[in-house]
Amino acid sequence: MASFDDSKKPVAFDKSMVNNVKKNQSVVSLDAEQTQAIRNLDGPMLILASAGTGKTRTLMAKVAALLDNSVPTNEIMLVTFTNKASNEMKFRLIAMGYDIHGMWIGTFHNICNRILRENYSKISGLNSRYTIIMPDDCRKLIKLIIKGMEPEDTELKPDDAFEIISFARNAMQYDPAHKFLDNIEYSITDVIEQKFPKHQKYIKLIQKIHRKYHIMKLGNNVIDFDDMLVYALYIISTDEAVRQKYERQFEYILVDEYQDTNNVQAALIRRLRKNNTNITAVGDEAQAIYEWRAATPGHIIGFPYAFEETKIVNLTTNYRSTPQIINAAIASINHNIIRVEEKQMNATLDDGELPTVSLHRNIYDELEYIANQIYTHIQNGTTPNKIAVLARTLQMSRVGIHHVLGRQLLSYGIQYVVFGGKDLFDTKHIRDFIAFLELIYNPMNMIAWERFLGILPGIGPKSARTTILHLQNEPEKSITEIKLKGAKAKASIELLNNVLTEARTRAQQPDVSMMDFLEPFLELYTLSSLAKDDDFIVRVNELEETIQELNDMPIDEFLHEVQLKGKSKANKANVPDDHVIISTIHQAKGLEWDVVHIAGCNENILPHYRSIMEENVVAEPVEHENKDESEIMISNNPIEEERRLFYVAITRAKKVLKLTMSESTPQGDPLFPSRFLLEIYDVDPGAFKLDSDDF
DNA sequence: GGTCCACGTCTTTTT
DNA sequence: GACGTGGACC
Ligand SMILES: Nc1ncnc2c1ncn2[C@@H]1O[C@H](COP(=O)(O)OP(=O)(O)OP(=O)(O)O)[C@@H](O)[C@H]1O
């Protein structure tokens, strides 16, 4: 059975580092407030505290305390927000000397995917070979569905439809009294009315698209990311025996970053905690930055209503940042009108230098300045992996900042890692290879067929469709019998058939590994027109490197679960000492560095222009009556979410914080300083040092 | 009728 | 970088 214990998997961490550590029960020292969290191990608890006050540390200590009290590992579920965070947790627990084998540590998606895998037969239409489709293919499917509909409907963009459908499914208030698909359709209506009013006229259409999309996924024996959550909730809500099994299995459930849970995730937790109330939630509503993805900080605010007699633990001492950095953070976040209370963060570190702001001509100059600063810091003895450059987006004014900055850093001889951006497993060449694996392991997946057939010479969209129709209608018939136009197409199909037959035989053998399929894949892939691209070799090398990393993992396991863990490199618990970090602010959540640069502190970048536009579109917050269902909305103002993002960025810094902004885009359009800077200047002109001759 | 190829357009944040 | 489009080519 697949296990979440990554100790046997290659991608999670380097186990050799912890072999010599002896079990030490008091590795984590806690202050008086933090100790409250482990004094009560049972019952509902909410740890609600600001940035850098030790929430993650306390959560870790609580898990350790449970283990010290002989709670079996398989009775603990620890939910983290990212795979990086779960790898970090595992790493630290093992480093403390604990055997965590059997513990369920993972993201909601990981955990739901596992519940689904153990109960997939409850979803009629799925068979055991079902695999995961990535967002790229989801969009393709939706595009196909829209194309197949009435021409008058074509104004709706597939990406918009997908965004709305995904949001609606994550925001669904699932009521088992109604049919599953009806629940989602209600949600689509609600979501469009409240959040996407521009698409009001498409409500019926999007519901129809969703229904088709749902049926097509099942027909192809695939699930998307949202299905993991939504199906797990469906199973737990409609099968009381299964629900009870999991409720009994998990004596303790702990959830980190609770402010960013969505309705489906919160409902799942509530249903798993009906009789057993051992639930610990940890978070900070001021760090809610995923409302755009249907997360609702109302769940953390409403937690004490959802769970009676919740013990609330407040942590008020900041152990991370200098008083100067904390001052800037508070001066910013207090501009959010909709918030629970004044932030409390009492500094413990000694005074440090004032955070700086500097103005540059454009983003290229900003990055040049940052690269130079980083070089100086390293010259002065700072370890590279204690330095990070954060940005709202990796793509600014059509400049890939990780590429530009990366080049500059390398010219100083500094290496770097990138957090954020497109998932490696969602890039074209890797998806092409995965599609090939799907033809072997999940041949019902016509999305994979469509993708792969299109790569072959002589085969375009039409021949691919024809082939797929034959596969669906006459699955027993060999693909070589299909009549296609052109000798090229025929030859391609002939070759594909031979390669696949051989590959399927290889797949039956017990010692098979992913690398065995690289050569057959390349035999076909090098024939495609892609092989003429300049970077084809680079792509193939990256593919080979990726396969090498994944090679120890059973292929079906990869297709079933692991590809959702994405970017194996960037998820490693530890960044090598000699690498600096380039990251989106979203990916920086929960992390900390001595030196933090924030690039692009401009209006339209941070806050992002889409949020500025949306601000005027979104409906008023809704107050629901049944508070025990935790539906209190505290904010859906996109600008406030951007401000929280800015706050998260600032509070990542321990000692040095440097912000940069530009006068204009490289194209010459003027840019203005971020309102988040100006408003701090209004209340506290001394919060930042202006570090530029140009002021 | 269908595929190939060069060129122009647009690019938030993520499990 | 990935996708759509229009015109050349098989
Ligand atoms: N009692 C303590 N004594 C010393 N250092 C501590 C203590 N508690 C926390 N720290 C340190 O403070 C820093 C922040 O802790 P942690 O990451 O757990 O905070 P957090 O509340 O999860 O922050 P955020 O919400 O910003 O992610 C870490 O470096 C941690 O080691």
Question: What does the main sheet amount to?
Answer: 7 strands, parallel
Number of domains: 4
CATH topology-level name of the largest domain: Rossmann fold
Q: Which distinct ligands sit in these coordinates?
A: adenosine-5'-triphosphate
- What gyration radius follows from the Cα positions, in whole Å? 26 Å
CATH architecture of the largest domain: 3-Layer(aba) Sandwich
Question: What fraction strand?
Answer: 5-15%
**Helical region count?**
27
End-to-end distance: 63 Å
Low-confidence parts lasting 5 or more residues at pLDDT below 50? 1-26, 618-634
Fold blueprint:
Blueprint (H helix, E strand, L loop, with lengths): L31 H8 L5 E5 L5 H14 L7 E5 L2 H13 L8 E4 H12 L11 E2 L2 H13 L10 H13 L9 H15 L8 H17 L2 E2 L1 H14 L1 H10 L2 E4 L7 H10 L6 E5 L14 H4 L1 H4 L4 E5 L1 E2 L4 H11 L12 E2 L8 E5 L2 H17 L7 E5 L3 E2 L2 E2 H11 L3 E5 L8 H14 L4 H10 L5 H13 L13 H22 L9 H8 L10 H15 L4 H6 L18 E6 H4 L4 E7 L9 H6 L23 H13 L2 E10 L12 H9 L5 E2 L5
This protein binds adenosine-5'-triphosphate.
The site of adenosine-5'-triphosphate has 19 residues, from helix 2.
It binds a DNA duplex (15 and 10 nucleotides) through helix 4, helix 9, helix 19, helix 24 and helix 25.
